[in-house]
């Protein structure tokens, strides 16, 4: 029974490592996207962003509170493009298909 507990701790350790890698990648992704919006930040947001960059350069993984704040900044400034409005420019009309 003690042996099974050891395996579960090992599995927990592996899963924790995988989760940390994904959160580190997510952290990098958010920082890269926010770089484009840096000039739009308020003074406080700019200070926070600079602190995030400094911590990232030190290879410091963000805690839950910092990661939540980084995501809030990302969601505030980065709006996904609605590509559906461009569909009408790339669809073939029925008249063009019959010409070929």
Category from helices, strands and their pairing: mainly alpha
Shape: flat
Helix percentage range: over 70%
Number of helices: 5
Order of helices and strands: HHHHH
Proportion of residues in extended strands: under 5%
Radius of gyration: 22 Å
Runs in which pLDDT lies below 50 for 5 or more consecutive residues are none
- Mean pLDDT rating: 81
Number of domains: 1
Describe the biggest sheet? Answer: none
Spatial gap, N to C terminus: 73 Å
What secondary-structure arrangement, pairings included, does this model have?
Blueprint: H1 2-34, H2 43-57, H3 64-77, H4 87-90, H5 94-99
Key attributes of the depicted protein:
5 helices; 100 residues; flat; mainly alpha
Commentary on this structure:
The structure is a single chain. By secondary structure, the protein is mainly alpha-helical. The protein has one domain. It is built from five helices and no strands. Helix 1 crosses helix 2 and helix 1 runs parallel beside helix 3. It is flat and about 65 Å long.
In short:
With 100 residues, the chain is mainly α. It has one domain (2-79).
């Amino acid at each position: 029974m003690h042996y099974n507990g050891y395996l579960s701790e090992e599995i927990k350790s592996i899963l924790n490592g995988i989760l940390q890698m994904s959160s580190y990648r997510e952290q990098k992704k958010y920082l890269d996207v926010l770089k484009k919006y840096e000039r739009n930040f308020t003074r406080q947001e700019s200070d926070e962003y600079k602190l995030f960059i400094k911590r990232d350069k030190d290879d410091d993984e963000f805690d839950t509170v910092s990661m939540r704040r980084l995501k809030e900044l990302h969601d505030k400034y980065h709006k996904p493009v609605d590509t559906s409005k461009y569909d009408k420019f790339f669809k073939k009309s029925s008249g063009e298909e019959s010409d070929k």
